Amino acid sequence: xxxxxxxxxxxxxxxxxxxxxxxxxxxxxxxxxDLGLAWMPREQVGVVGLAAIPIxxxxxxxxxxxxxxxxxxxxxxxxxxxxxxxxxxxxxxDLGALxxxxxxxxxAGAGYLGRASSAVTASPFVRLGLAFAVTPMFRVRADVLTxxxxxxxxxxxAQREAxxxxxxxxxxxxxxxxxxx
Length: 181
Hints:
The two termini are 20 Å apart. A hairpin with a 7-residue loop joins strand 5 and strand 6. This protein has an eight-stranded antiparallel barrel with strand order 1-2-3-5-6-7-8-11. The chain has a two-stranded antiparallel ribbon with strand order 9-10. It is 5% helix and 70% strand. It is mainly beta. It has one helix and eleven strands, in the order H-E-E-E-E-E-E-E-E-E-E-E.
């Protein structure tokens, strides 16, 4: 039983990477810390979990005031590895769903009211990854994830739309992947 458990654990991996989250629509980039887990019980098929935790929000400034938007992503899906575990270069495609938590805070200019708001929604995602094995248990990894929020998010100033977010969004990251052989 111990040998089987050890083998199962060797098929698991974790990743840590800084990331940049972008969406067209008027807001700038957001910085995040990206965490990931993968379990590959088959040579080329497994499951993944991921989270992108915001560390810097996007800011929008207008004469009416300013607004900051922070986005937290968390979800999971299926990973398809294009190459084998023994390859120095490993590419992958992940398909899944994310919970998207959005939090905005506003600071009003003179004569306006500022407020905070938050929302949680869901999004499908596709993530492409490429990793290089420095050792059998340590890889350098880069990923690009894309998703879309069906109705998007709107940031409004004085009852008019100033920016949108989520139609679509892209998360790029580069970091380390360890434990998966």
